[in-house]
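Please decode residue identities from the backbone states below.
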């Protein structure tokens, strides 16, 4: 079943019979809207799409593209130049791995437009990439393109990126099925949300690379003082120890760090092996995250002997949280915090 279908396939039959008035464009659009509603995210925020499940994100992105296709179809007979809108929709379809539909959208452009030749050439390249992908997968040869095609596309991507055409560079990488390189290109240009969305939609970005992309974004947020978004991204990849270290290094979130460590202790998520591992906050290291058994942890090189263990981090959090409770005259819960964390530490 194709992910993207025609917006007119679900048109009510009552409107097609004789003796009835066809609906206006607005009426028809409103009648179709309930069919294309997306799945709401549990925690609406600027990074909610990055923290959502990949299936929900793909569903919502597909519904959005369907609505845009419907809008293009409604104005197809109007004397307007929709070439830029069609190019944008085609690129969204490419990110959803709907290459065949992307070619159709480009070829439906107004042939009198000055951009029609470029759209037709892009549609041809997309169709060729789609056929090459199907042939390679059918022959159990994976999804690798020829060296000449790869080198040409990468060189074109570099030149487009030098011109400031980020979308064009990403487009070149997608044509050769290098979605991970496309994500790195987006991140290098500061488009962190787009990179995370593409990583979750891409069929050939595995879980380890997805965690690396999200962790790099979390480190970027932390180094710029956006602690809560960084924490949410780290929780997405399961880096609980890094979250504890990051909150410990952020003095304004000492209460959040204390509650978080209490949760880890009560849920039994602090094992002896985890406590003995060294962990460093994203605020203190420039090393790329490494994915381990319990998620990525920021570990510095062996030359630095002052990297604390998770046990030391929890002790520091406990002390700060204990002082915070006592300073607010909460003398009842301060001993309770010590008793809950003593067995873990």
């Amino acid at each position: 079943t194709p992910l993207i279908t025609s917006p007119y396939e679900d048109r009510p039959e009552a409107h097609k019979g004789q003796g009835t008035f066809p609906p206006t464009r607005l009426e028809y659009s409103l009648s179709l809207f309930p069919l294309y509603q997306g799945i709401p995210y549990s925690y609406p925020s600027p990074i909610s799409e990055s923290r959502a499940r990949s299936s929900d994100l793909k569903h919502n992105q597909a519904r959005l593209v369907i609505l845009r296709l419907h809008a293009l179809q409604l104005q197809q007979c109007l004397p307007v130049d929709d070439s830029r809108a069609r190019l944008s929709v085609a690129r969204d379809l490419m990110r959803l791995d709907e290459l065949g539909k992307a070619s159709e959208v480009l070829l439906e452009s107004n042939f009198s437009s000055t951009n029609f030749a470029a759209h037709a050439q892009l549609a041809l390249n997309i169709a060729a990439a789609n056929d090459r992908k199907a042939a390679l997968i059918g022959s159990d040869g994976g999804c690798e393109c020829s060296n000449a095609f790869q080198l040409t596309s990468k060189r074109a991507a570099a030149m487009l990126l030098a011109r400031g055409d980020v979308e064009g560079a990403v487009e070149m990488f997608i044509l050769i099925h290098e979605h991970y390189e496309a994500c790195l290109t987006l991140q290098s240009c500061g488009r962190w949300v787009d990179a995370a969305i593409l990583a979750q939609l891409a069929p050939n970005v595995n879980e380890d690379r997805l965690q690396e992309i999200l962790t790099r974004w979390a480190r970027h947020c932390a180094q710029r003082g956006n602690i809560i978004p960084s924490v949410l991204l780290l929780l997405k990849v399961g880096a609980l120890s890094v979250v504890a270290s990051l909150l410990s290094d952020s003095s304004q979130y000492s209460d959040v760090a204390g509650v978080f460590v209490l949760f880890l202790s009560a849920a039994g998520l602090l094992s002896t092996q985890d406590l003995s591992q060294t962990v460093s906050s994203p605020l203190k290291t420039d090393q790329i995250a490494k994915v381990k058994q319990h998620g990525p942890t920021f570990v510095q090189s062996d030359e630095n002997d002052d990297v604390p263990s998770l046990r030391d981090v929890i002790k520091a959090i406990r002390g700060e949280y204990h002082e915070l409770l006592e300073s607010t005259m909460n003398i009842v819960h301060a001993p309770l915090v010590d008793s809950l964390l003593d067995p873990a530490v």
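Observation: Confidence is low (pLDDT under 50) at residues 7-19, 285-305.
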